């Protein structure tokens, strides 16, 4: 993959990550100038939210180095993420902000992967979502559906549809189906009997096929 020919965003992290990698001796080095890669990512996120608080924006921040090749190392950034969220809250930067914490896939190497738990973890990455208090009151049905969908079969096609729905919350029909009819907004109730085929999940990655 050759990457982007032109900078695809207003604020682009790639130059930083390139410099970070050049400044570390090995790909598994987690610190640079006394800070972990996750500390830099969180600081960048806080500064971005602070500076753009009066403007609509979308940002994607990734903690790759700390978690990509380790099942247990994620615990080392729990306090860091908690501290950052508390800092955002203390500075009233979450009043008009939606946050999603998620993984794109599970562990792909090591002794855990071939186990039953490892197979499930590979197919069911974490997904957490924060919504501001006013949303719960103004769009109570959407919030109710969001909570219901926490125990329904969903994919990031649905996450994509939800992001589009956020752009036009008062349009009740928006976000029901998007991206070539693959996603359903998480603000709409996902059918209880939704199958992997319905959700466009290939059979290899269907967690419904696993039995204890």
Automatic annotation (TrEMBL):
Top-level taxon of the source organism: Eukaryota
Record-linked InterPro entries: Alkaline_phosphatase_core_sf, DUF229
GO CC, alphabetical: extracellular space
Descriptive protein name: Sulfatase N-terminal domain-containing protein
Species of origin: Mytilus edulis
